[in-house]
Every structure is written in structure tokens, then in C-alpha cells.
Amino acid sequence: MALTAAAGCSADPAGHADAHRQAVTGPHAAPSAVTDPRGFTLVASGDVLPHDSVIARAGTDAGGSGYDFRPMLSGVRHVVSPAGLAICHMETVYGPPEGPFKGYPDFVSPPQVAPALAATGYDSCSTASNHTLDAGTEGVRRTLDALDGAGVRHAGSARTAAESNRPAWLKAGGARVAHLAYTYGTNGYPMPEGAPWAVKLIDRDKVVADARAARKAGADIVVVSMHWGTEWEEAPDADQERLGRELTASRTGTRPDIDLILGTHAHVPQAYEKVNGTWIIYGMGDQVAGEMFNYTGARDPRGNESTLGRFTFAPPASPGARWQVRKAEFVPQWYDTDAGRVVDVNAAIDKGADLAGVRDRVRATVLSRGAAADGLTMAE
């Protein structure tokens, strides 16, 4: 986590809001031929990182009694909610309902974030990050309990060994979707005694094994969230590139084991790239964060810029074949630290906001590895 100040589109083109929030009832749903001809759109976004200023803003939005994060996220609800499936990244852990709460360096966030994520339209969140153990196993438990209470599924951290071995099971359109999540580390915190499964660490062989197990259990689509990379670097580092190549190259028979990789952690937007026929978002950037200061100690506006990835999946042509991404898009986002609001940049520009510089910077980074040639477009 970098140093921070103490205080501090259009609707789903597939039109399948009716498929939203359909959860598979168990981890062992048997594979079957696709009988539902519908496709669906998956939306994903970056790090939710409540610094002290973000928590204070939610307190103000609640009228001084509790915390309300719904207004903060409302600016992208029109993108998130219509999607067949929406995935976020909850970087921090929650405290008791009445606190105390704190931001950097060891985050303890209000559990009221969870219902706000649900109200925005998120179905599942990755919870594996370098901050997952900031409050030990109690922080993990409180976080997952709150997400469960809000109806938001989760992947990457666990309260029990059995839970750690299960992906988040979801359904959208006619597809069963398994969501897996991993982190590069936990800021030096060791795994809790007696709970070596509390958070999933990145291990190439383990990721592949989990993906294959999910596929065997009936997953039509396997989505992997990766908390990885080098903070403040817009280009993916060597480990991201290597892992991305290896994971997307992994196949069982003729079918890839992983269908989409969603990256977080770097604080800045990173490139999208199609590798071995599979889309990777190396880093989506921070969706919610206070004022960000990079390693030089300078205020860095890129730390409040991010993207929403949007992928429209089409059913396979034959049973057992791969669900194909027939449309890949990104939506530039910006967190307005003064107003405490997540902003859809293009929608704001259409209304006269002076955010062309943000849009152009995000677009240049996202397309920097040739994704446009593979069909990635910026959603208008």
C-alpha cells in the first residue's frame, strides 16, 4: 500500500438484468449442455480502499448517524446494475458495526460498505489482498459475514478450510460461473495460527488446480481475480506477464482452464491484453480511495483513476466448447475526492465536465499493449 494522506455508459448491451444475481445452489452442479441461448455481460471494477477521508464522507452521507456508501458508488450504478454479473474488489476488511474504523496503514472499514456494494449491483467481490489480514481472522470473519448479509458472494479469503476450497458460484444467462481470487502477499502478516487457509496466495499450480476443479464441478466460465503487480507502474511487471502467459496457456484438452483474469493492486490503471485467446486486465486501478501519494511523496491523481471492464459472453456453439467473449469494452472511472463520488468519466464529459485529460490518460494506458487490434473499445 502506498503512502496516503491521513485524511485523506451505457446500459448492458446484452440486456440481461433479469439474469442478475442468480446463484448456483452448490459447488457440485453437474456439467450439462447449454440449453439457454442467451449470452450475458460481465462487469468488473477495481480496488475499494476506504481511507479515513472516504470513511468520513460516508459518515456525512449518512447524516452523521452511521455510514452510507451508496451515494459514493451511485455514479456507476447505471453501468454495474444492468450487467448479468458484476464483480468488485474489496481490498480492506471490516470492523464491528460501530467501529472503531481506520484507514492506512492497517485498514479497518465500516461493514456498511457491503450493502452499498449490493445496492450498486455487485454480485461477487474478490477479498484476497495485501490487507486481508490487517485485523486477523476476526477481520476476515466480519468481512465475509457482512458480504453474506448483503447478498454479495466472495472469493479469496475464508472462515473455514472448507470455504477456502470453494469458489464463489454464480449464474448469469445460461452460464455457471466460478469466481476465484488470490493475492501476492499480506504485507508481512503471517497466516494465522491454525488457519493457513485464511487468504489464498498466488501460486501458479494452485490457481490452475482450482480452476480445473471448478470446471470439473460444472463451471462454464472460470474468472480469476489477481491482486498482483507493482504499485504505481502502468505497465505490467515481469511477474504479471509471466503468470498471465502461463495461466492463459493452461488447458484441459482443447479448452482453456481460465476464461478471464481481473487484476488489482497497482493503484493506477494498467493495460488490457488478449493473451493466448483470453482477456487479461492487468490492473483496473482504485475505484474508491482517498487522496493518493506515490513513492516520491507526490500527490498522484492516477491513484483515483480506474476502469470498469465489460465483457459480453456468448454461449458455445456446441456442448463443452468455450463461452466466447464477443464484445470487450472498458469504461473510464474517476473518484472525485472533493465530492466523495465515483464518476463515470464519459458520462460526466457528456454533461460538460472537464475530464478529457483523465479519459485520454486512461484510454492510452488501457490500449498500450495493442488491445484495440483484438477488438477492445472504450464504451461511450
UniProtKB/TrEMBL annotation:
<dbReference type="InterPro" id="IPR029052">
    <property type="entry name" value="Metallo-depent_PP-like"/>
</dbReference>
<feature type="domain" description="Capsule synthesis protein CapA">
    <location>
        <begin position="41"/>
        <end position="291"/>
    </location>
</feature>
<comment type="similarity">
    <text>Belongs to the CapA family.</text>
</comment>
<dbReference type="InterPro" id="IPR052169">
    <property type="entry name" value="CW_Biosynth-Accessory"/>
</dbReference>
<dbReference type="InterPro" id="IPR019079">
    <property type="entry name" value="Capsule_synth_CapA"/>
</dbReference>
<dbReference type="Pfam" id="PF09587">
    <property type="entry name" value="PGA_cap"/>
</dbReference>
<protein>
    <recommendedName>
        <fullName>Capsule synthesis protein CapA domain-containing protein</fullName>
    </recommendedName>
</protein>
<feature type="region of interest" description="Disordered">
    <location>
        <begin position="1"/>
        <end position="32"/>
    </location>
</feature>
